[in-house]
Structure formats: C-alpha cells, structure tokens
C-alpha cells in the first residue's frame, strides 16, 4: 500500500464521518391521545425518511446487481468508518454476525465461549451454531451486562472467546473484560446488536474488541426493512475469513477455500441502511433526549432507572426500568394505551432448550433482573406528548 493510501486509511479511521443528512424529514402521520404507544414502531422510521428511502430502493430495482453489489460495498465502508475500524462485512442477520465471527477465530467443538445469561437468545443460538460450548455468566445489577468477577471464575484452558453483550444500548464493563482476555489470551467479541452509536471511553462499541457484531433488524437503532447484520474489525486476516465464510468459503468466484455458509446482506437493505446511517447521530440524540425526560420525571419513584455509567455513552436502544411490581405496572399502562415490552422474561439457562446443559446454574442477578425489567416506549419518532403520556401513566401507578 502506498504512503498516500496509508495516510488516507489513517484519516478514515480517526475521523468519524458526520451522519446528519440534509434531506428533509417527511411529515409523520398524526397521532392523537388515543393512538397506542408501543415500545417500538419501526415503520415510523421509514415514514420519517420515506422519500430518500424510496429513491434508494428504486435505484437498486433499476440496477443490475441485487446481491453483494455497490450498495453493500458502500454501506460496509461507511459503517466501518462510522465505528472507527478498517473493515465491515455485511451478513444476513445479527445471529450470523456472531456465528461467523466465532468461525473466523477457528472455534472448535471442544472450545468454550463465555457470554451472558441475560440477553436475546440469539446470542446463545449463535454460539451453539458455531459448535462451541456455551458457558453462561451472571450480570451486574447496574448495567445488566456481563459480571467480570463471574466471568473470571468461569475461564478455563478451553475458553476461546468472551462474547460481551452491550445490552439495551449501554456498553458492557469492558475494562476488566479486556484485561481478562489479555491475561488468558482470549478473544473479545462485542455483541453490539442493541448498541449502534454507544461509546466506551470515547470510542464506538464494536471497535474495542477484536470483532464487533451488529444486528440490523428493523427495531434496532440502525435498522433495515427486513433482516441484516454486519461484522466489523480492524484485523485484515479476520476480515478476509469473514468475506469467504459468508459466501460458501469462496475466495475466487465459485471456488471454495474453506467450508462456508450463505449469509449475505442484499443490495436493497444496504441502500436503505445507507440512508438511515446518515441520520444515526440525530436519532441517537433524540433517544437520549427522551431518556432524559423519562429520568427527570420518574426519579424518586420506587423504580431502578437506567443511565450512563462512568466512561460510557448510552445509546438507549431501550429505556429499561426495573421493579418487582412489573406485571401490575404493565397492566396499568395499558389503560393509557401504552404497551411496554419485556427484554427479557427468561434468562438463557431457564429456556427449555438449554435446561439440560445449563438448568442447574444459579445466576441470581440475571434471574432477578429477568423477573423485574420493563421496557418503556423508546424510538426517535416519539412525540413529546407521547412521552408525557407514558410518564403520566407510570407516575399515576404510584399515586
């Protein structure tokens, strides 16, 4: 690589591109006091940027390539630059992102992968798909992410990787996890499915471990209109393996150099995501504004509220409160036409699919959290009036 190209790459990695778009936001449909408020409404994000998204879709439809073409290449480069890494590799979904990341570090059936019991079950499924043994660790009561103390207890000579989930949009406790990985020569993989634009020590999540894995599911902070995922890394060798793994192990067209899979991000989703990526900073700012309104209005109630831990910037994929009165509060909010979610009602070791291998575990914090968490409505298109209605509903529950 020439000196000029090296300087260009260095600039790309250390100059985060602006994501605020100049396109006018489309007027959203009118909602009134009787309109239901759900914990997520991804269609509103399409409506907000409909003109630009429709134009991007039309361009793909009129083109000649529908799979792994210029839109995918463009999105991969733009998202990698946004995160602050060298490579982005688009895949079919977030589960595949983790699965292929584990394959790329040559996980074997005898290997162990430590991850959290309190997460979307997709995290666990991805490890299982890789053939490795899932080792579940507890979470902390402040972040609801991996407890480094419990992780340290569960490291063995067979531990190949730690998958740290940045849950609800808040970074995991990466400092001690990085130290454990360094000390034991373990790979840190970041599950950033819920944490687009979250930061740890001023760096985007996904750029801290060896590999970062993102879901682009419609409800995510950066969501497609369909399934999608992307893996990011600054490791050239890992990136090349991932590109081969996602398409049958091909290095040259139709010539497999390793056993591979079929996990490709299509052109239409990539085109949609390129439009939305330009607005991601604005959408994150709005999420944080809504979160601040919730926190100010609900402080002092018998609820555990989320917030930024030291050196962290929460992206508020979800605004999750915790209360032993969850079911009663959830039912009460329905009277206000407010319908929160629960993420997640069962820790992984309590799922029937994993009872035989992990049902004996005692993970008290994860079990308590799963019984008490409630996700209030959170998406950038919420109006101030809708936020106020959610607040009124919660406050009225407590009299």
TrEMBL record:
InterPro entries, per the entry: DegT/StrS_aminotransferase, PyrdxlP-dep_Trfase, PyrdxlP-dep_Trfase_major, PyrdxlP-dep_Trfase_small
Single GO term (MF): transaminase activity
UniProt keyword list: Aminotransferase, Pyridoxal phosphate, Transferase
Domain of life according to the entry: Bacteria
Gene3D superfamilies with a match to the protein in the record: Aspartate Aminotransferase, domain 1 (3.90.1150.10), Type I PLP-dependent aspartate aminotransferase-like (Major domain) (3.40.640.10)
One family name in Pfam for this protein: DegT_DnrJ_EryC1
Family assignment from sequence similarity: Belongs to the DegT/DnrJ/EryC1 family.
Name under which the protein is recorded: DegT/DnrJ/EryC1/StrS family aminotransferase
